[in-house]
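Researcher: Please translate sequence to structure tokens.
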Amino acid sequence: MNCLLCERRLQSLPSWQMLIAVEKTSLICDDCSKSFERVDIIEESNLLDRITSIYTYNEAMREYLHQYKFLQDIALAGVFMNELRETINTHHTIIVPIPMHPIKKIERTFAHVEELLKTADLPFDDILVKTDTAVMGEKTREERLSMAPLFQVKPYTTIRDTTYILVDDIYTTGTTLSHAAAALKEAGATRVEAVTLIRAETTKL
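Model: Translation complete:
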């Protein structure tokens, strides 16, 4: 098997975690793996009771995201499956992926956050609907603060007395996670956390 990023032959030996199925075989080589920088940032905000970001947005991550999301190389969904499995708590929690707007999903052909979770074998509930096609990175701070709610909880959804964990690929301005958390809390959720694969900036929510 070859590395999905540099296409060199993979030569890694199975670990004990792989043998007992706790960890899956890596899809990239050690050199490519080392090009990503872990930061493991943990914070909280007014709406999010805990926010965890695993990696920083460096050049290697920029190239990965471009190939995965915009060149639609869906096989790359599994590159960080072990890190997501290690980070996202599945004990008495409900995992909620940040959804794409239906129009954006048709353009991209797949829901990239859902694919990350599926490849990591993490169960999730798709209970949010995105109501706006806006790209947060293209808006000023004032424009983001004045935006109408970006998400709605799907009709007939029962909000349970447990922790909801929002999952997104990247944290940039924090607006997306803040709006998603607000939708869940307005619907009755008492605790909402978030996990992002990447942290692009250090701006607090």
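Researcher: Any highlights?
Model: The longest strand covers residues 163-171.
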